[in-house]
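quick one before i forget lol
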Amino acid sequence: MRLNEWGRIVEWTWYDLPNHVANITLDIFVVMPNHFHGIIIITDTVVGAGSVGAGSVRAGSEPAPTPANTIQKRYGLPEIIRQFKTFSARRINEHRQTPGQPVWQRNYYEHIIRDDDDLNRIREYIINNPLKWESDEHYSK
C-alpha cells in the first residue's frame, strides 16, 4: 500500500497512541484504502516507564507522586479504539477542512488473541491483506 496524506495521518496516529495510552504495546498493522488492521497488546498498569501489578503500590510506603512514578490510568480496548478514531478523524478533517465529518464506521471488529498460533495467523492475515485489495468489494481503479 502506498499511503496518501490521510493514510499517513492514520499511520502517525497509530504510532502516537502509546503517548496517550500508557498500558499498550503496538504490534503489526496495515492501513488499507477503506479500513485498518492492527494488533494492540494491553498490558498491566504502568508506573513511569515500567509495569507493576495491582498490589505493588501501597499508600505510605512509596514516594509522593511525581510524573516519573505516578500510576497512569489503564484503558480498555473500546476507549483505545475511540481515541484512535477520534484523533485520526480530527487530524484528517483538519487537513481536508471538513470539521466534524465522519471518517470511520461506527463499530469495529475485535478478536482476543489466545495463543502464539492465533497471533501468527492474524499477523499473516494483516501482512497479506494488501495483496487481496483488488478482490475487495470496494476496490476501484
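fyi The chain has three helices and five strands.
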